[in-house]
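Take a look at the protein record below and flag anything odd:
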Amino acid sequence: MNLKKIFYKFTNKKKYDELNISIYKKERIKILKSGLETKIIEIQKNLKKNEISFLHSGHLGDVINSLPVMKELSKKHKCNLYLQVNKSLEKHIEGYKHSGDKIYMSKKMIDMVLPLLKHQEYLNEVQIYNNQKIDVDLDLFRKIPMNFNLDEVRWYFHLTGIHTDLSKQYLIVNDHDSIKEKIVIMRSTRRKNIFINYKFLSKYKNILFLGLREEYEDLKKEIPNLEYYDCKDFLEAAQIIKSSKFFIGNSSFGFTMAEGLKIPRIMESYPDFPVIYPNGGHGYDIYFQSHFEELCEKLYNLKS
């Protein structure tokens, strides 16, 4: 804290506040001018190539959220996506850290998501990163000096300058062979909305949980008739979600898939850091119990 700031803190609140704003702006501009702006301009140039290679280190939801940009570019370009294994967690976006994590994506996570990504025909190639030449480092979104409390998908719009219609489907899978018409839930225990509960869902039949066993056990306390299914990979998880009656999830990978699939879905919004917003179709985000119950009934009675 400089001397002027200390002086104003105790003598002139207005000037103290103005100085804080000025310092904040200068810090943000310094980040932009310290090399980030040059990289953004370089990305713009690279996006004019016939074949474009993208790098991403995760998290899984962040990878899926980058797909709309690649799908849009694939109309005129070949798009390759490379995933980096075991990249160490950096100083992360405030409010959006994964507690306890030390890396972004493990080899196991990448092996689970590769079948889903390779199923996207608009991606020319999807592989583990092994020093391939990269045109667009998607991880740079974490360096952008802005408030990240906006729709996650749009982070990549601002990184690349490419915008697309988010009401359109960008995750493409077939229906599941046998698991259909379930109310599917995939819910992290880390970002629960404290204003709601799931107890009322026990009146519905065919409720299926996807995800970690401990997450299932946690929710089963509220929904005794909740079933569990252990997917072999995220392609199968996406197929089950696509074949569902409707989907419920919170700020986690499950809702990211449901959003890309554009199936009927309810987002349990996280009051402390809302960064996921449904776009298009029967997509809803909720904060309060009465709205949650009403929307579940609406989607349950929705005709296919």
